[in-house]
Amino acid sequence: MQEKPLIVGLGGTGSPNSSSERLLRHALGQCAAKGADTLMFAGLDLDLPMYSPGEEARDEKTLALIAGLRRAQGVIIASPGYHGTVSGLIKNALDYVQDMAKDDAVYFEGRAVGLIATAAGWQATGTTLATLRSITHALRGWPTPMALAVNSMVPVFGEDGSIVDTSIANQLDILASQVVTFANMRALHDLSLLQGVGEREAGGAGGQ
């Protein structure tokens, strides 16, 4: 059992240091400040072969992503809005979660999922965020009450890369807090189940 919950973030674009990647990095930093371990997959980490059902061979980057998600007790997804929905890069990475279909914790079962959508305009941010919620529900995840729709046409970052919009910074902090709080609750639940199994096994051995 991990001493700290692990929060895995995936997002960004094929270009490094995109707005969605920087927002994701900030959110994971807030998770770390709240006591969680974090792991990030962004940009080239998500440049994966096109998902194909039934294929057993996976490249190293895909195996690393799925291994990280299997260990995760919380997830944060950040996608740019491309033509009114999530980018192909993010959707393809999420399609690989199908490899977790036969896990004990199927897909994102029992995990809080924080969602961030960025786009050049409010309409696209809204539809992209709605798509992320639909995908999360399909993967049996628990979308956090706080989610971010960020209009990249409005100044968000300063010259040093820091977030200058205090409203966005506050929302990211709330999102991170909700993901970590839920992840800690899940960790305690898993630990109590393990302790219960251990006590039953010990009791059974003593009665023999």
Give your account of this protein's structure.
The structure is a single chain. This protein has helices spanning 19-33, 60-71, 88-95, 122-138, 166-206, and strands at 6-11, 37-42, 74-82, 85-86, 112-119, 142-143, 148-151. The protein is of the alpha/beta class and 208 residues long. Helix 1 (19-33) crosses helix 5. The mean pLDDT is 91. InterPro entries: Flavoprotein-like_sf, FMN_Rdtase-like_dom, NAD(P)H-dep_reductase. One of its GO terms (cellular component) is cytosol. Residues 7-150 form the NADPH-dependent FMN reductase-like domain. It comes from Sphingobium boeckii.
Report low-confidence residues grouped into runs of 5 or more: none
Q: Under CATH, the topology is which?
A: Rossmann fold
Percent range for β-strand residues? 15-25%
Number of alpha- plus pi-helical segments: 5
Number of domains: 1
Distance between the termini: 29 Å
Order of helices and strands: EHEHEEHEHEEH
CATH architecture verdict: 3-Layer(aba) Sandwich
Structural class: alpha/beta
Helix content: 40-55%
In total, the number of strands is 7
Assign the CATH class. Alpha Beta
Largest sheet descriptor: 7 strands, mixed
Rg value: 18 Å
3D shape = globular
